[in-house]
Amino acid sequence: MIQADRRTGGRAVGTAVLAAMLLTASPPERLAAQDSQFGIRGLGTPGRWESVRSRSTGGAFGPFDPLSPLTEAPLADIGQLTATAVGGTSHRDVAVGGTTTALRATRFPVMGVAGPVRPRLAVAAGFTTYLDKSWDVTLRDSSLLRGVLQRYTDAITSDGSVADVRFAAAGRVSRRLAVGAALHVLTGSTRETAERRFDDTTFHTVQQSAEVRYDGLGVSGSVLLGLAPGLSIVGWARSDNRLRATVADTTSAMTDLPRMAGGGVLFAPSPGARFAASAAWRSWSNAGAGAFDTWSWSAGAEFGSRRMPIRLGARGGQFPFGPGTKAPTEAAGSIGTGRAFAQGRALIDVGLERLERRGGGLTERVWTVLVGLTVRP
Amino acid sequence: MTGRRLALIGVALLVAACVERLTAPGQCPDFCPSGQITIVDTLLTSSIHGDSSFRGYVLAQEAALMLAAHIPGATDTLDGRPIFRINGYGSRFRISSADTSTGPILGADSARLKLVVLRRDTATHNLRLQFYRLPITIDSGTTFGSVAAPFSDSLVRTVNIDTLLAQPGRKDPVTGDSVVSDDTVSHQLVVSLKLDSAAARYVPTDSGTVAYGIRVAADSLASLAIGEGTLGPALQWYLRVDSLGTTVARTPVSLGARFASFVFAPSPAPLDSTLAVGGVPSARSLLRVAFPKFISDSSQIIRGTLFLVPAVAARGAPADSFVIEARTVFADFGGKSPIDTRLGDTTVIHVGATDTVKIEVTNLLQLWAADSTHPRVFVLRPQAEAQFFGEIRFYPSLAAAFRPTLQVTFVRRFPFGVP
User: Fold this and answer.
1) Is the Cβ–Cβ distance between A184 and A238 less than 8 Å?
2) What secondary structure letter does DSSP report for B396?
3) Chain A residues closer than 8 Å to B39 by CB
4) pLDDT(A41) > 90
5) Looking at chain B, which residue has its C-alpha nearest residue A19?
6) Considering only CB atoms, which chain B residues are within 8 Å of A106?
7) Which one is the CATH code of A2-361: 2.40.160.60, 2.40.30.20, 3.40.50.1970, 3.40.50.2300?
8) Is the alpha carbon torsion for B406, B409, B412, B416 positive or negative?
């Protein structure tokens, strides 16, 4: 029995190593990378608060997933101490103005731990990406200086993100009803640089840099209601106050953050089939010009046993930042699976997502490979 | 065990996934950051004040070389004459290296004088060096006028450099003169001249000390520079020594000049309200700058240019363009301010030119911006002081229409953190 455990554990380790290699392996040529270009002019690229399992279903299972830091109420059913982490590598083609550029990014968007502390009470802590703010923009342009047209190359970069550190608690009020709430501490920093190199080297190179720190607070709450055996609904809401950016202890910007609300329905007609759908609204227009309120929806399904299910899903909606008067649109399809090892104490989830964003003459097409690791010691 | 392995893999995954390599195109303005690099260009017309000139930093005898010139001008002729003194061996000389016995020096059969011509106008033809015997009393107090007489009646030798260079092997078989080195890159010449016993008189009562002066002449404007110190004149004596009634020949080691300088006329014009730079003795100018706080406090300077309007055409030997440099000082003590030699910016001055002179002083302005305690003072001086006759004079700040000005191009602080 012990030997069987060791074999199972060894396979789990091997699979995890393979997953790590898949996530981190780079092709020999230098590929460019950044987050969505739609987010450069806005606050950034909002993170996806979903585990690999949820994201493989288009996000539809997110409101019902205790390991997705979207809602709190499902934590009430977590049962045992669980830790999870998600990694993803995106390969992005950006088409604008007749040119297409290949970009690549690797992210580690979710990490958390959750577990019961009382028979009807569970708590969780962890972080997820709230806004990704890594990008590098290079430009060729010219300007009239001292009566002469001077050509130059600008390189403006930002490297960092704002993380959402979440402390959540959930309890089962009754057999049908669970509630949860969370405090969200937004924190992070970016290393930003601005450089201009003139073709005429009489003009020295402009090089400025700063570390920008961000902070903010938010609260959220959720309700999970079992309507009937195999049928549940969930509702959630969240409010964040503002994102304060400080450079050298001086506030450089205060940006109002959105309120958001959403809900979903989960239907499990049999132990081998689960279906879910969800929708969410976010008031990103609070953030100012160039930001839009967004709606998003998702639908997905999970088939098979929990030891090795097949997942698929689709989602659509809007991206909160973009040029013009209309929010960019986004649509995605996803597929995934998972594997439990060591009698369910370790789970590897993998997913593949194809995303397309359109707006303002720019189209992004993204393949994202996702790997999740969940441990129940 | 497995849990520990999984934890380790999780940590490895975390570390590896955080490695980022970022680069991307820009499609502006829609998909670019809202903040832009803002460049401002401003002309500071009244920031320079308290400017003045000082002369006497490097004298002729302190210069690294000797200047010779003969350049007729409209009103006078620039006439520069190197002078040098070579001390002898005394009245006695060792007969043998095996013992310390000495014998009286009877005289010299001949001598060979080596000169290094460091700089010359290769366009000048028929360049001649005329050697004059000077009083051995020449020193730092010697003036052009005080040696005018020997420079007119004590000619001992003339050598035509162009003729010598045209000889096979650059050697004159009649006179014994030669050019032993001709650097085609730097145009430096090492000239070796044979002086007979009349030209090179070893006078034991003078301890064998000799002094010579050189005048230059050419078909057109003549100007050259002769080395000093290790590159200075060297004299190889061929002596006759009395060894117990027998005259023996001795060739001791060559001797270098113990004193080397040059005299010239006309003397530099006295300093006036203009800003003089260059000449001999060398002149420097100080310019104090009221550097605006809005530039130094909150921006990055990417270009600074100092504009100076010549009050008169730059003077000097036409072929000898010279370099002036702008530096700053560690402390403002007027003419005795210690110069900060860490940073400097230069420009070339062409003799006869009256165009506005521009010196890029970006490095200095950046230093001032970085160090608020650094005195905001420019020092203008020749890069090679007293090594050129060239001198330029600029209008001072008192001349409102032509005063020195400073053009500064700077960048405002980038709005980091603003979405």
Assistant:
1) yes
2) -
3) 143, 145, 196, 206
4) no
5) B13
6) 17, 19-20
7) 2.40.160.60
8) negative
Amino acid (one-letter) located at B200:
A
Q: What is the mean pLDDT of residues B318-331?
A: 94
Smallest CA-to-CA distance from A72 within A150, A227, A183 is with A183
CA distance linking residue B131 with residue B109, whole number of Å? 19
CA distance A313 to chain B (A): 25
- Exposed e or buried b per residue across A323-349, where buried means at least 16 C-beta atoms within 10 angstroms of its C-beta: beeebbebebbbbbbbebbbeebbbbb
Residue that has been written with the tokens 């590929």 in this structure: A31
B41 touching A (Cβ < 8 Å): yes
- Sorted by sequence, the CB contacts under 8 Å of residue B252 that are 6+ apart come out as B89, B93, B237, B239
What SS3 class is residue A23?
Answer: helix
| CB-based contact, B244 to chain A, within 8 Å | no
Q: Output the six-digit token pair for B388.
A: 């050129």
Binary contact (B30, A246; C-beta < 8 A): no
Contact A204 B302 (CB under 8 A): yes
Both tokens of B35, joined, read: 């903040």
Gap between the Cα atoms of B194 and B203, Å rounded = 18
Average pLDDT over residues A220-226: 97
User: Is B42 or B98 the better-scoring residue by pLDDT?
Assistant: B42
Q: Is B119 helix (H, G, I), strand (E, B) or coil?
A: strand
Phi–psi pair at B40, nearest 5 degrees: -120, 135
Query: pLDDT tens across A143-161, in order?
Result: 999 999 999 999 999 999 9
Q: Is the pLDDT of residue A16 over 70?
A: no
Q: Residues of A numbered 338-377 whose beta carbons fall under 8 angstroms of chain B's beta carbons: which are they?
A: 342, 345-346, 360-362, 371, 373, 375, 377
Nearest by CB: A252 against B24, B362, B416: B416
Neighbours of B213 (CB within 10 A): 25
Is B20's Cβ below 8 Å from some Cβ in A? Answer: yes
Select the residue of A26, A208, A362 nearest B413 (Cβ to Cβ).
Answer: A208
Assembly ipTM? 0.77
Query: What phi, psi does A11 have (nearest 5°)?
Result: -65, -40
Domain residue ranges of chain B, discontinuous segments joined by +: 39-58+270-412, 77-265
Distance of CA A171 to the CA centre of its chain: 26
Q: Which residues neighbour B224 within 8 Å (Cβ) at sequence distance 6 or greater?
A: B67, B68, B69, B117, B118, B119, B120, B121, B127, B216
Which residues in chain A are contacts of B13 at CB distance < 8 A?
A: 16, 19-20, 23-24, 85, 87, 108, 371, 373
Widest distance between CA atoms in chain B: 110
Three-class SS of residue B98?
coil
**B22 with A287: Cβ contact below 8 A:** no
- Domain extents for chain A? 2-361
**The pLDDT of residue B25 is above 60:** no
Query: Closest approach of chain A CAs to the CA of B418, in angstroms?
Result: 6
Closest CA to A162 of A85, A88, A245, A105: A245
Cβ(A56)–Cβ(A312) under 8 Å? yes
- For residue A205, give every residue at least 6 positions away whose Cβ sits within 8 Å of its Cβ, in sequence order, or none: A195, A196, A197, A198, B302
If we measure between CA atoms, which residue out of A174, A149, A83, A232 comes closest to residue B14? A83
Q: Does the CB of A162 have a partner CB in chain B at under 8 Å?
A: no
pLDDT of residue B36: 86
- What's the DSSP call for residue A205? P
What does the block give as tokens for B14? 């975390």
The pTM of the full predicted model, rounded to 2 decimals, is: 0.77
B345 vs A27, which has greater pLDDT?
Answer: B345
A with B: how many residue pairs have Cβ under 8 Å apart?
207
Say which CATH architecture domain B39-58+270-412 belongs to.
Sandwich (2.60)
Identity of the amino acid at B171: K
pLDDT at site A18: 47
Q: How confident is the model at residue A34 (pLDDT cuts 50, 70, 90)?
A: low
